[in-house]
Each structure stands twice: as C-alpha cells, then as structure tokens.
C-alpha cells in the first residue's frame, strides 16, 4: 500500500487554478523532493495532502486512509511542517511539545517519552525549558520539525524545512531528515534496508539539498506535474539537477507577470 496516493487532485482559488489534476503516489520509505518555481502549487498540494485544505476535485489517501472520508486516521498518520509552523510563542519548548502530543491524541503515558525523543532528535535539549518567543529562527524551525515528528507518524510532509536558516543550520536540518529516514539507532547505511523508514515529501528551493537526501523528484509547474523521476536517473552521467530543472521549467513559460 502506498504511503501517499494522490488522484486527480485540483484546487481552484477563484479564477486561479493553483493545482490542476495531479496524480502521484509515494511508497513507504521514499524521500521525495517536491520542487517547482514560486507559485507552482507546492504549498497548496501539501495542505491538501495533510487535510488542512479541502480539494476542489480529486482525492488523497495517506497509508490507505482517505483524507476526506477517514480524515482523523489520515491526519494521525501524518507529521506536517507547514510554511509557518503554528508555534505558541508564550509556551516553553517542552510544554508546547507535550501540548502537541496531547492534541495528536497520544495516550497520556506515551507523551513524556515521545516529547523527550523529539527533543533529542531535533537537537533541542539545551533549550527545552526556554520560552519559544525567546529563541532564534533556527531553533523555531527545529521546534516546527519536532512538532511534526512527536507522534512518530509514518508519513512526513515538510514545506521548506530549511527556509530562512543559515548554512550550518541547513546542514543540521538535512542531517536530521536523513536520520529520520533511517531506522532509529541504525547507521545511515541502514536506510537501504527500507525497514521502518519514515516516508518524507519535502518542498525546497535548495537543489543541493534534494541531491543530498532525496530518492526521487516530483517537479510541478503551474499546478501540473512536469516531471516525476528518480534522482539516480535524473542525475545520471553527472547531470546537475539545476540543469534539468531549468530545462523543464523554461519550456513554454510565459513572460513573468503574465496571466496563467
Ligand atoms: N488562499 C489562497 N487564496 C488565493 N490564492 C491562493 C491561495 N493560496 C495559494 N494561492 C495561489 O495559488 C498558487 C499556488 O500557490 P502555492 O502557495 O501553492 O505555491 P508554492 O509552489 O508553494 O510557491 P512558493 O515556492 O512561493 O512557496 C499561487 O498562484 C497562489 O497565489
Ligand atoms: Mg510554498
């Protein structure tokens, strides 16, 4: 059963068709880079995957649960880092994560170990007692990731996890994602085994990040899938992703500012 399955998914905002009948599925353990120029429809698609935005047409199943008819189960199977994480600035880091664990429906006894684990995995131990509003952007992004993984969901949807971070923080977040997609406690080579790996779909504009951590690339342009291919075949023969990306996007693109 695919971890994520998307059929004929569309979203219209007034006269703007932001997502125009896309189809794809993601197998358990895959790490998919979801790419596309500004306004391509990445965030809109991710909001529909996670059940936060109703589609105008089409459907989504997460680990076999339909986001519409079986929304609660679908949402439980997902960890979501939105473009703007819904942090509660007045709460402490650990207090906020305990709160998230509760609203995700985790049983009381399971929350404390889950919060400790998320704090450890996201490198938040030094600031666990701090009030969120006093922390830097990089730490707040880590808290965003921690709230996405706290209930140990099989599927992670990460909308630009490294946006606004400095190069060192970007590398740390990348390391964290690599770790998440390997079984707990295993060396990263264990990723290959496919056992207990989390499925990840992440959007980013940093192509080196995609080259470093993704198995596969889905490129959308003006709401349609322009490319869906494994990273290995895209970069065969030493081709850079940037080259592939600009070739696919350049095609028949209207001048900037033109109506789509
Ligand atoms: N709530 C909304 N109301 C109206 N239009 C919207 C809304 N949300 C998104 N759009 C439009 O839908 C299109 C796709 O936007 P979306 O945010 O999904 O793009 P994106 O690929 O995430 O871009 P970026 O790389 O800039 O984050 C854009 O034309 C945007 O203006
Ligand atoms: Mg976006």
Keywords, separated by commas or semicolons:
alpha/beta, 260 residues, binds magnesium ion, binds adenosine-5'-triphosphate, four-stranded antiparallel β-sheet, 10 strands, six-stranded mixed β-sheet, 33% helix
Structure overview:
This protein is of the alpha/beta class. The protein contains 9 helices and 10 strands. The protein has a 6-stranded mixed sheet, with helices on both faces. It has a 4-stranded antiparallel sheet with strand order 2-1-4-5. The model is unreliable at 185-195 (pLDDT under 50). The chain binds adenosine-5'-triphosphate and magnesium ion (MG).
Q: N-to-C SSE series?
A: EEEHEEHEHHHEHEHEEHH
Order of strands in the sheet with most strands: 6-7-8-3-9-10
Helix content, binned percent = 25-40%
What structural category arises from helix and sheet content?
alpha/beta
Work out the number of β strands.
Answer: 10
What amount of the residues lies in strands?
Answer: 15-25%
Q: What ligands does this structure carry?
A: adenosine-5'-triphosphate, magnesium ion
Q: Spans of 5+ residues with little confidence (pLDDT < 50)? A: 185-195
The radius of gyration is 18 Å
Helix count from the secondary structure assignment:
9
N-C termini distance: 36 Å
Shape: globular
On the 0-100 scale, what is the average pLDDT?
Answer: 89
Main beta-sheet annotation: 6 strands, mixed
């Amino acid at each position: 059963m695919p971890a994520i399955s998307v059929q004929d998914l569309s979203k219209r905002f007034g006269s703007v068709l932001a997502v125009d009948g896309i189809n794809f599925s993601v197998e358990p353990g895959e790490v998919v880079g979801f790419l596309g120029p500004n306004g391509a429809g990445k965030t809109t698609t991710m909001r529909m995957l996670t059940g936060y935005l109703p589609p105008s047409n089409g459907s989504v199943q997460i680990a076999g649960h339909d986001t519409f008819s079986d929304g609660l189960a679908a949402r439980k199977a997902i960890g979501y880092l939105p473009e703007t994480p819904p942090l509660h600035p007045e709460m402490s880091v650990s207090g906020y994560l305990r709160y998230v664990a509760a609203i995700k429906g985790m049983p009381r006894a399971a929350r404390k170990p889950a919060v400790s684990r998320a704090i450890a995995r996201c490198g938040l131990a030094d600031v666990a007692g701090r009030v969120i509003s006093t922390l830097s952007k990089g730490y707040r992004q880590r808290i965003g990731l921690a709230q996405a993984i706290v209930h140990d969901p099989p599927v992670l949807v990460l909308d630009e996890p490294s946006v606004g971070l400095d190069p060192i923080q970007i590398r740390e977040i990348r390391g964290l994602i690599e770790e998440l997609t390997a079984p707990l406690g295993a060396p990263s080579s264990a990723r290959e085994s496919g056992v207990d790996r989390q499925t990840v779909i992440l959007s980013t504009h940093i192509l080196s990040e995609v080259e470093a951590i993704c198995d596969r690339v889905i490129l959308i342009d003006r709401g349609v899938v322009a490319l869906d291919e494994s990273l290995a075949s895209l970069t065969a023969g030493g081709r850079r992703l940037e080259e592939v990306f600009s070739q696919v996007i350049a095609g028949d693109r209207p001048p900037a500012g033109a109506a789509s």
